[in-house]
Amino acid sequence: MNWLLGGGFTGSVLSFLYPVLRFVNPPAVPEASVNEVNAGKVAELKPNSAKMVKFGARPALLIRVNETEWRAFSAICTHLNCTVQFHEAKHQIWCACHNGLYDLNGQVVSGPPPKPLEEFAVHIRGEEIVIARRA
Amino acid sequence: MPAAETKTRVANWLEERLGLAAVRELMAHKTVPVHSSSLWYYFGGITLFLFGIQVATGMLLMLYYRATTTEAYESVQFIMTRVEFGWLIRSIHSWAANLMIFTAFVHMFSVVFLHSYRRPREMTWWSGIVLLGLAMAFGFSGYLLPWNKVSYFATKVGADVASSIPWMGQALGRFLRGGEDVAGATLTRFFAFHVVILPATTIFLLLFHLVLVQKHGMSTPPWIGVNGARQMPFFPNFFLRELMAWYGALALLGVLAALVPWELGEKADPFAPAPAGIRPEWYFLAEFYTLKLIPNHVLGIEGELMGIFGFALLALWWVLLPLWAVNRNGMIRVRLVTGIGVLLMAYLITFSLLGYFL
Questions:
Q1: CA–CA distance, A130 with A122 (Å, rounded to integer)
Q2: Which residues of A touch B157 (CB under 8 A)?
């Protein structure tokens, strides 16, 4: 009798908890897959400067290294998800949250980031800059 | 009807319905030990008082606050600039939160150094540690609500730390964020945690903690012993002293809120880089600075994971203090626990200062 009552009680508690646990787990919302975005015009960026670009729902960092050389990376630090920035004086990419440094190839120079930044391809089409996810 | 007779009739009426004689009896017999370290007994009460301030000012702020990414920052700005005494209520809420965590830490370390965690008060220690964790969760969830730059990145980092936990991390990170990124869904969740889920859990646990304190009474340090200390009646002697301490805390709050009003900062922009000099609230600074120091890989494992594993082990070991603080003969290891308490406090203070200034 005790087993029956105990089992019934446990079962009813679990049947209340299960929908609650499923409810608090957010449903996956499919994101529009972005593979390429227009990042503005060539004239907008001087050599040794950078700007943030919306790459879908996430930020990307577009860097004009010199007159002809361009780089673009996902701006999400591989350490703890902060947003990185271009450090003009150091000529490197810097994350202010935990002092992570990357070179202009996205490789880790120092600090805690465990992986390089995801690199995007930069295409110059006339005056337009287009950055695209690498295949 | 004479006043005295009315008073008696009202008292009898209340007595019949509420049984207040039992409460009076309890208050008449409750005592507090008096010794050189009695001062530390006040910090639990001060923490409770600051929690009460939090609840009161939080309810007031809720009258104007709007938990959406487009309105949260503006609503706090509105509170601070347009609502009468809005700046004061918000500053008191923020300062009281920080002071509450500070006094909770003081209370915890006083329990360690007076060895009050020992048998039969293990459950009081454990409920207190969970309450401290809840206070920090209050801080973490409340930090995001103004939706400013610093709070946005602090939440991103905090949620990502949770995501790094092996096996369950991804699910936990999604649960905290309400999705893949810190966004509107995160703000809604954090608001719900901050104003409903955490307060409900805290009040339940706080009652449990207070009932245990009432049941076991105030602990006397082992070097004094139960019979070695003079006793002071709780009511009114200790209660009035505690009330003076609350007034002191209130005065400090008023001074801080008036002279150093809590800043709002810049509105969060998910597409802007993390600002230079970004750091979390002071009570997470030691962990923040430690994570900064750990190399990206330690023994082939990601440094971040290693750090989180280290913090988890340290926290577990600290929670289990009442179990390892006793030797095989049932005696408290006074020197060991005091030494470890001093070391932990030194680590927290040093690394918090380094995290703040470097």
A1: 6
A2: 80-82, 97
Who among B160, B180, B273 is closest to A80 (CB)?
Answer: B160
In a domain, B286, yes or no: yes
Order of strands across the sheet that contains A92-95 = A85-87, A92-95, A100-102, A108-110
B247-270 residue pLDDT tens: 999 999 999 999 999 999 999 999
Per the prediction, chain B carries an average pLDDT of: 92
Predicted complex ipTM: 0.79
Closest C-alpha to B154, from B67, B66, B275: B275
Helix residue ranges, H only, chain B: 3-18, 20-29, 42-61, 72-81, 86-113, 122-144, 149-163, 169-177, 184-192, 198-216, 239-259, 285-293, 303-319, 321-324, 334-357
User: Which residues constitute the domain of residue B186?
Assistant: 37-267
The tally of domains found in chain B comes to: 2
User: CA–CA separation, B220 vs B34, rounded Å?
Assistant: 9
pLDDT (tens digit per residue) in A9-43: 999 999 999 988 888 888 887 777 788 999 899 98
For A36-133, CATH number? 2.102.10.10
Compute the count of residue pairs across chains A and B with CB atoms less than 8 Å apart. 83
